[in-house]
Amino acid sequence: MLYDHRYHMKGSSVGQLNVYQIQNGLLTCNLVWSLSEQQGPDWLSGQVPLNATVGYKVFFDAF
């Protein structure tokens, strides 16, 4: 399964964007996608492969 998302990372203070997947019932999360630094002036598309055999949550962490 692929999770599609759009992101915009332009500017002098752009840091990092991470996407994590947490399996339901587990306390650990897996980093499934990461990007850092400026990526240009346009909105871009990202695709994240997810293990969807059980329930899960996806969360974004940006700094």
From TrEMBL:
Top-level taxon of the source organism: Eukaryota
GO terms for cellular component: membrane
Short name of any one Pfam family annotated for the protein: MAM
InterPro entries, A to Z: ConA-like_dom_sf, MAM_dom
SUPFAM superfamilies, per database record: Concanavalin A-like lectins/glucanases
Limits of the MAM domain: 7-62
Gene3D superfamilies reported in the protein's UniProt record: 2.60.120.200
Protein's name according to its UniProt entry: MAM domain-containing protein
Organism: Dreissena polymorpha
Top-level taxonomy: Eukaryota, Metazoa, Spiralia, Lophotrochozoa, Mollusca
